[in-house]
Task: inverse folding
């Protein structure tokens, strides 16, 4: 059974700081891993999708890495801004090419001006 | 234009009522989903449809019945609403297969009183 854990559950940083969010999963036989952002009262926005053959993906100030063998992914946010404040969730397919995503509980990030 | 749109955004109703949430995607995707986010913010898949056919049905009470009139629409009908059904329901879509980015709607906040 695939389980996804995100640490820390909440994080508060001053503006401008670089930070890392962690995601771990129990079943390493995944096709991909996705990082999402959820703003209060809003849906989820896909940030990055890393295929199992990739080790990292970058989009602007975001960089996500994937280490399948150890069951870990990190989301690195450079030069954080108050607008980055949101809950960040990672998700992996339940198994094989399954379209069922298993989500972590998220890390609530607050970037203080 | 909103890629995945769902209505209503907020719904307050009494126990025992029947209600529907509608979802439409204009991305040309083959696969649509319903996810439920409970009070602990945990996101779990409920259903998945591929080209109007049900492909994933999690352990969801029979009171929940999805209907897909065409591949751009996936509606969720809930009978005999219970207090425990209070949650945020997210519609989502993707191209067919487990390796594609999933796009979420903004959620429908259901409160059963």
Result:
């Amino acid at each position: 059974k695939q389980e996804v854990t995100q640490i820390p559950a909440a994080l508060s940083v001053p503006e401008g700081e670089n930070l890392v969010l962690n995601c771990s999963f129990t079943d390493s036989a995944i096709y991909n891993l996705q990082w999402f952002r959820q703003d209060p009262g809003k849906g989820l926005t896909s940030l990055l999708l890393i295929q199992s053959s990739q080790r990292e993906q970058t989009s602007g100030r975001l960089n996500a890495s994937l280490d399948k063998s150890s069951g870990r992914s990190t989301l690195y946010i450079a030069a954080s801004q108050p607008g980055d404040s949101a809950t960040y969730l990672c998700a992996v397919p339940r198994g094989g090419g399954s379209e069922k995503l298993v989500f972590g509980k998220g890390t609530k990030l607050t970037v203080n001006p | 234009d909103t890629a995945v749109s769902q209505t209503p955004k907020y719904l307050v109703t009494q126990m025992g009522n029947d209600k529907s949430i509608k979802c439409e995607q204009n991305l040309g995707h083959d696969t649509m989903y319903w996810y439920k986010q409970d009070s602990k913010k945990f996101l779990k898949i409920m259903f998945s449809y591929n080209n109007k056919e049900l492909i994933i049905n999690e352990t969801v009470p029979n009171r929940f019945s999805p209907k897909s009139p065409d591949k751009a629409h996936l509606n969720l009908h809930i009978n005999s609403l219970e207090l425990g059904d209070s949650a945020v329901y997210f519609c989502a879509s993707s191209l067919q297969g487990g390796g594609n980015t999933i796009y979420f709607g903004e959620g429908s906040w259901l409160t059963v009183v």
Residues 32 and 51 of chain A are 4 Å apart (CA to CA). Chain A touches chain B at residues 31-32, 34, 36, 41-46, 49, 51, 87, 89, 91, 93, 96-101, 103, 105-106 (CB under 8 Å). The longest strand of chain A covers residues 44-51. The mean pLDDT of chain A is 91.
